[in-house]
Amino acid sequence: MRPMKQTDTHTYIYGRHPVMEALMHRPDCVEAVFLIAESKDAHLQSLITEHNIAQEVLYPKQLPGGLERIVVHQGVVARISVSQLTEEYKDFITAQTPAPNTALVVLGEVQDPHNVGAVIRSAAAFGVSGVLVPPHNQAPITGVVAKSSAGMLFRMPIVTIPNVNTTLRDLKERGFWIYGLDGRADTSVSEEQFNRPSVFVIGNEGRGLRKVTAEECDTLLAIPMHERCESLNASTSAAVILYAWSVQHVVE
User: Fold this and answer.
1) What's the CATH fold of domain 87-246?
2) Within 13 Å and on the Cβ side, how many CA atoms surround 94?
3) What is the Cα–Cα distance from 214 to 218, expressed in whole angstroms?
4) Strands (E), 94-212
5) 10-85 architecture in CATH?
6) How far apart are the C-alpha atoms of 43 and 20, rounded to whole Å?
7) Where does the chain hold its CATH 3.30.1330.30 domain(s)?
8) pLDDT (tens digit, 9 = 90+) per residue, 116-172?
9) pLDDT band at 186 (very low <50, low <70, confident <90, very high)
């Protein structure tokens, strides 16, 4: 299945909740909304009008942006400006004032868009300041990501970075402590004191962290679990780690 299409400049999201989240929280990145002709969604319509967004008719048998007819669009699709939605690293980090209760997530070649969306959702839930996304070997921002994030894609700063390892070195120079998630690590997340600005690096679903990325980390963290289970997937591991961090800090 090919659930959506992305170009360098825009992507398509679908379903009422993700589109509503985009219209309510990031209308600046919404280029157009496609609605079925018989739509009677007054709230959706009012947001489109309020933000002066272009509206087009949605034809279910020929969805825009290469979307497959199988996607659950609920009669609404939106075209999103990726460049408008995301923020460049140099601008984002310049505006940050790192403190012990500051946390960032770096995606290290996470290739399943469902995992990317779930990580963004957990980051929003546990008070993370931004999710940093590299350009290579990484699932891009898509409609699947928007759906899987439960719309949190439009409430979290999504930051584009040129390179994972270069970014980690810069963050260390700025006072951040770099944590890598590694199921074979000696340090348990339950024992760690998160008393410095923290960065959590989530590795690839299959091979985990790249060796060179693991070497850039200050501490590798493992999640203790029952012997009958060998591992958790990337997004579940991220949720556990971020929760462990959040209980030591006030989540606002």
Assistant:
1) Alpha/beta knot (3.40.1280)
2) 5
3) 9
4) 103-107, 130-133, 158-160, 177-181, 187-188, 198-202
5) 2-Layer Sandwich (3.30)
6) 9
7) 10-85
8) 999 999 999 999 999 999 988 899 999 999 999 999 999 999 999 999 999 999 999
9) confident
